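FIELD: query
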Amino acid sequence: MLPMTKLRENRLIIVCTAILLVALSYSQASFAGGHKGSKSLPANRWREIKRLDADSVAVPYLDTMFITIKRKDSFSYHNKSAFVYNGIYILDDKSLDFGYAKFTIVSKKPKTMLLRDPKGYYLFGLDSSDTVKTIVLPKEEKIDSGFTIDNMIGHWSVYKRTPLKALQVIDHNVLLKSMLITGRSTGRKMGFVFSDVDKKDDPSWTIIKFDSKHQMECEGKPSRTFTVTKCQGGEIILQDEEMQYFFKQFK
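FIELD: result
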């Protein structure tokens, strides 16, 4: 038989372990209950206060991230002294998609939020400072409609997506991630369009036609047609019946 002192120690360890497991289960259930089926987050301003790599080791950083969650599923996202991205975010269970940046919500509390991506973890606290970068836009931008697909040549990445109607299901197989435009000089294949889940060498669609009305026909499974509404100022905007996509070229 074990000595009485040793027996008490073992019982204490078992009780403490049980309490910890119950608390962890409650925390996970509480998080899931608050987000499962939810399509929006409470409006708030968040500032990155700590960063960890994929192995949960703290790392130094200078490009502090700022996220502003607004009403009607809109957001503002930027790194310190960098371009401000505005748009509509997509919240699918624990997946938070800003278009240009995508995260998994690890935990969400009233005053803190922990996000994760393949590179690591990002801890945010409520931001009460005056850190919002003000962007002064021209009152009206004159869109040049005289472009062809040859004006679009290059590699373009989506930095913002705006739903044009309520989405019943989030299907990453059809959401666009990037496109490589080669132009008319390459014959029938004028470029390639990649979905969220495509590999770099395996695009879902091939661009086979671009007409004078800026209709871009893509062959694939299924075949799709997009309307290019803008190609100027280092930006391309195209859309189908469900989504509007904003592209830029990133080095």
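FIELD: remark
Residues 12-38, 131-138 have pLDDT under 50 and may be disordered.
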